[in-house]
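hiii so my PI (J.) wants the whole complex modelled not just the main chain, which honestly fair. so below is everything: two entries, each one labled with what it is. i double checked the lines twice but i was tired so who knows lol
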Amino acid sequence: QQPVQSPQAVILREGEDAVINCSSSKALYSVHWYRQKHGEAPVFLMILLKGGEQKGHEKISASFNEKKQQSSLYLTASQLSYSGTYFCGTANTGNQFYFGTGTSLTVIP
Amino acid sequence: DTEVTQTPKHLVMGMTNKKSLKCEQHMGHRAMYWYKQKAKKPPELMFVYSYEKLSINESVPSRFSPECPNSSLLNLHLHALQPEDSALYLCASRQRLAGGEQYFGPGTRLTVT
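here's the output for the full assembly
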């Protein structure tokens, strides 16, 4: 039931862009994106509820293709503060919630 | 107040000990979660409480016993744990049962010796 993310890890230079993909084998009601820094709790980035919906938050945006059961997170003009592990999370209409496999993102000067 | 608090921050316990983890939120959220996270792995869902009733138990061993005394408080009672249970235990709460974001506490770092 765990969504699969790709890539597993990525290293960027400041200012570069990145895309993180999340794919599920089960039908999705919503997709969440979280970022977790080492030793800290996950921090909510955004949630997508409808197929094909795209949301944005400053230089971070995401899309959700409900039919393909996929979501992508787009990071534009990356900053050092973007470093961390990114998780997608999938929820059904109940209370269950499953985190994806995770993508480690490192931004270097 | 959008904070979820967890105590203690760190806990070291022997395999014969009994201890409890505590989680508290005052946002009026009616769904509360326990997750277990091992190093370099995603959080794994353990239990979900909805309106103070246990709604999901992800086949967690009985040495972990959750309790929800009221809508603001969630406990996780630990007994006869194994060294492999050492992990970060995260609590989260959620306003809506479906689709809402989760607010996470800072976690309890548990070491079983």
